[in-house]
Amino acid sequence: MPYRVRGVVAPAKNAPAVLTEIIVPDPGPGEAVVDVAACGVCHTDLHYVEGGIGDEFPYLLGHEAAGTVSAVGPGVTQVRPGDYVVLNWRAVCGACRSCRRGRPQRCFATHNATQKMTLVDGAPLSPALGIGAFADKTLVAAGQCTVVDAAAAPEVAGLLGCGVMAGVGAALHTGQVGPGDSVAVFGCGGVGDAAIAGAVIGGATTIIAVDLDQRKLDWARDFGATHTVNAADVDPVAAIRELTGGHGVDLAIDAVGIPQTYHQAFYARDLAGTVVLVGVPRPEARLDLSLLDVFGRGGTLRSSWYGDCLPERDFPMLISLYLQGRLPLDRFVTERVGPGDVPAAFDRMARGDVLRSVVVL
Predict the structure, then answer these.
(1) Dihedral angle of Cα 24, 80, 330, 5, to the nearest 10 degrees
(2) Beta-carbon contacts of residue 199 (< 8 Å; ≥ 6 apart)
(3) Domains of the chain
(4) What is the rounded distance in angstroms from the CA atom of residue 30 to the CA atom of residue 72?
(5) How far from chain centre, in Å, is Cα 258?
(6) Which residues are in the Enoyl reductase (ER) domain (predicted)?
(7) How far apart are CA 266 and CA 250, in angstroms?
(8) Burial of 35 (0-12, 13-18, 19+ CB in 10 A)
């Protein structure tokens, strides 16, 4: 029998998100239904509301989630009812040319559930990032479920599903930070602070946080930044060079995704250093760089999509680090709210008042 549950829906572009009843079908082949326990409020959800990602309204919002599998469809073997899982938005196919070459984290054919969740009147919903987890239950592809240690509370475990994984992975996987490296992180929201935490795990000894908001710089120190630069007061490139003996950093991570911060990251790195873009740019953003400087400075320019993660490898590992006290996931959670509080949480997020609001269901 289909399930009739609550869900937070964006009905149209720039229309306020509403809490309403939705219909979740029984899982079909390769699918699973998950009872959502908690889901983080991410900027990506707000981008859906604003029409910045697509126009397939109405959207069922929410994607940074943890919960318990309640039902699985035919052919599902990787999870079973009762499993405690973190949801991911990149269920790898195992058959594309990238997967066949042993690089599943770069899968070209990731997939979601085949069936549609709907409004009560039958209108199909587009789940945010193929998940749609501001809901009591959601339908996903079974490969979007990653089993983790249930000792981690869902309010923190779910954050691995997007922002934290993106930031940690940008440092560890894409940027390949190593012992003794110097790192600069531009933008100290949730993703940037996760990149700082990833740099700590990787063994970086100089970690420079850059932002325009002093509150965020103070938060960045809690995640392991050794130095902070307020770009509202000083030239961040000059400040970073001064902190690194005039050389620049080994790794510069742009967690904002605007031309100005990318330009700063490019010139704040040492010769042959690495730039990683993990902040998601707007479609209209354009970058103007001297091609001679791109050639002459050498190094690597990389984009990080979901932190180059492989959920089945990385989620359990990061939960283990959290339980060991080596990854401060609790510090990301600023507040816990109910599903009806999502619009107000969007406002606080847009003002920069929170690192993460988490919807508890």
Answers:
(1) 20
(2) 171, 177, 181, 183, 185, 207, 224, 251
(3) 3-161+328-360 (3.90.180.10), 164-305 (3.40.50.720)
(4) 8
(5) 17
(6) 7-361
(7) 11
(8) middle
| Cβ(251)–Cβ(276) below 8 Å | yes
| The token pair that represents 94 in the structure block | 């195992």
DSSP run (H or E) holding 100: helix 97-100
Burial class of residue 179 in the structure, from the number of CB atoms within 10 Å of its CB (0-12 exposed, 13-18 middle, 19+ buried): exposed
**pTM metric for this prediction:** 0.95
Residues 6+ apart with CB under 8 A from 169: 198, 304, 306, 307, 308, 309, 314
The answer to whether the CB of 140 falls within 8 A of the CB of 131 is yes
Q: Which residues contact 274 (CB under 8 A, 6 or more apart)?
A: 175, 176, 250, 251, 252, 299, 300, 301, 302
CA distance 275 to 251: 6
CB 276 within 8 A of CB 302: yes
Which residues lie closer than 8 Å to 327 by C-beta, 6 or more apart? 168, 197, 201, 318, 321
CA separation for the pair 302, 287 (Å, rounded): 14
Question: Would you state the structure tokens that stand for residue 189, as one six-digit string?
Answer: 């929201």
Q: Cβ atoms within 10 A of the Cβ of 248, count?
A: 22
Q: What are phi and psi of 42, to 5 degrees?
A: -110, 155
Contact 57, 18 (CB under 8 A): no
Average pLDDT per block of 10 residues along the chain, 361 residues long: 96 96 98 98 93 93 98 97 96 92 90 96 97 98 98 98 97 98 97 98 98 97 98 98 98 98 98 96 92 96 95 97 97 96 94 94 94
Which pair of structure tokens corresponds to residue 299? 């190094």
Burial of 185 (0-12, 13-18, 19+ CB in 10 A): buried
Instruction: Please name the residue that has the structure tokens 């009806």.
Output: 340
Tokens of 134: 């501001």
